[in-house]
Amino acid sequence: DAKTTQPNSMESNEEEPVHLPCNHSTISGTDYIHWYRQLPSQGPEYVIHGLTSNVNNRMASLAIAEDRKSSTLILHRATLRDAAVYYCILETSGSRLTFGEGTQLTVNP
Amino acid sequence: GAVVSQHPSRVICKSGTSVKIECRSLDFQATTMFWYRQFPKQSLMLMATSNEGSKATYEQGVEKDKFLINHASLTLSTLTVTSAHPEDSSFYICSARSTSGGASEQYFGPGTRLTVT
User: Of A44, A100, B82, B94, which has the fewest Cβ atoms less than 10 A away?
Assistant: First the structure.
């Protein structure tokens, strides 16, 4: 499975934008980029996914580099409820998702 | 979004006994469900992929005779931990696949905390 690299942790202030980076230099042409987040003692929650073009939904935006070797999850206005571990995952064979260590996002009031 | 439930949310069992965990997709049909395990302060590890009406596909290192998976309908998959031991204590999470175009979103259950004493 293609691997992703994310910072272990990031901090943000409430109501400020957050940019969570992800490197995936070995991505193949058919791999989708998925983002999930997980709060403590809960199952992961789907955030967003994309292939080549930037994507927006009610939760976040996904900016994908032109060469697709990196992407950035953008939370436009962080809230305390956005504090979670964010996972950047490449969907390779079928729907199999391989979780890395993710980025622990701390949101300061 | 789609809803996936798990039951029970928390279970404590004695060493040597078996425990069954249910995973249900409540508002959509899931041809494929996945089972993950998560130890404290670690990431999720995929255990197996479950397709409705066929045998599950297990990840390397996961004992299929110990972790029995049944996916008898499009809305229900079960994971049975047989002869559980304390090292099986973990957070078990299922997910169900919803297809959207060429990609797929997975919807995760809330997890089941298993403690084996």
Answer: B82
